Amino acid sequence: MLDIKDNGFPTALAARKCLTGDCGEAIFWTAKRAAMLALGMYIFGEKKDIPKRAIAGSLAIQTFVMGWTFFTRNDAKATLPSVDAVESNNIPGIIGTYFLRSGMVYGGMYLAGIRTNLLRTALAGTGMVEASILVWNDIKNG
């Protein structure tokens, strides 16, 4: 297993720690992601069940993050497809991972029993998460 202090994206690093039994940071990032989703949903006009929608969407994304991290746990760098796209300035990749993540949020909300405004809410909430990755990359690269 690689040293947790290796280079990588914070949520991927937290997922690596969680795979070894220390899930505190993964829970923190899941909650932070839910807050970003909720903000995006609110800004774009959603008024109903925002906490439920945001938590369901964030848990769906975290499920993907944990799975991806498990299968790439021996890679030198803890990363995710969206981060790879942003770091390489791959515009089609950025757009593709935005829609993929939106699909995860949509699915999470659907599984949570939400049946109204799914597409709009998923796209709006996910925009905030995507923006955070773009900002993280800008800060990281100074």
Q: How do the helices and strands line up, and which of them pair or pack?
A:
Layout: H1 10-19, H2 24-43, H3 50-71, H4 81-87, H5 91-111, H6 118-140
Structural commentary:
- With 142 residues, the protein is mostly helical.
- The chain has one domain (10-140).
- Helices cover 73% and strands 0% of the residues.
- Helix 1 crosses helix 2, helix 2 packs across helix 6 (118-140) and helix 3 (50-71) crosses helix 5 (91-111).
- The chain is globular.
- The chain starts with 9 loop residues before the first helix and ends with a helix.
- Residues 1-6 have low confidence and may be disordered.
Structure described in brief:
By secondary structure, the chain is mainly α. It has helices at residues 10-19, 24-43, 50-71, 81-87, 91-111, 118-140.
